[in-house]
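> call design_seq(struct)
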């Protein structure tokens, strides 16, 4: 597995390189945003680990250009900022996960492996299923002539389901895809948020159905129940 690390602090990039190499990864390191962007656009990687505070070009701009260039490689953002707004900005720019500095290498390795288990990312700005439309850039949900208002977590959950229409997803898959490593397997949070979405997508009976697969999880179906 090939990993691109874009990090300007040599002590951190060296620490990551050594640990990932010992775990069996092939690691490429770039020390500024411009070089990281060029490498990400011209070579194939399985995961990109990207710092936000970089010289030449900050990590969020690198991420936006990587996604606009059609690169769907999973991206783990490294940030010294732990404010929720910074994390949301990173996820909105196309990140798959984030990790706040300082961090334990064991957590970085676990998050990297979790990203490798995820299905490929859809980079389309607009996702559609039947009369349902999700606009990632404008953060808008439309169902026919109706605008649907979702919380941030509901939006991410719906986006995850729209990436896998017709696919039966386990609660664990949904939990890790939406909540990352913060997801607790014994929690009912997935069922609770599925319930929220069902109610909000039930406008006029025109929305796609989120069907329960007993003993397994859920599937997003294009037709209404």
């Amino acid at each position: 597995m090939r990993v691109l690390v874009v990090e300007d602090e040599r002590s951190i990039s060296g620490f990551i390189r050594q640990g990932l190499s010992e775990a069996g990864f092939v690691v490429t390191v770039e020390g500024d945003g411009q070089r990281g962007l060029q490498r990400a656009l011209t070579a194939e990687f399985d995961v990109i680990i990207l710092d936000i505070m970089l010289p030449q070009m900050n990590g969020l701009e690198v991420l936006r250009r990587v996604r606009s260039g059609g690169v769907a490689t999973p991206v783990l953002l490294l940030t010294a900022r732990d404010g929720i707004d910074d994390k949301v900005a990173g996820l909105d720019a196309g990140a798959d996960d984030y990790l706040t500095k300082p961090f334990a290498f064991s957590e970085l390795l676990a998050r990297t492996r979790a990203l490798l288990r995820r299905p490929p990312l859809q980079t389309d700005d607009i996702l559609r299923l039947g009369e349902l439309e999700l606009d990632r850039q404008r953060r808008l949900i439309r169902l026919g002539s109706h605008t649907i208002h979702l919380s941030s977590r509901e939006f991410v959950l719906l986006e995850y389901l729209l990436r896998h229409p017709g696919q039966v997803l386990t609660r664990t898959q949904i939990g890790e895809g939406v909540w990352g490593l913060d997801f607790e397997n014994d929690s009912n949070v997935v069922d609770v948020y599925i319930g929220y979405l069902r109610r909000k997508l039930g406008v006029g009976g025109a929305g796609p159905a989120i069907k329960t697969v007993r003993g397994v999880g859920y599937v997003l179906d294009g037709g209404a129940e």
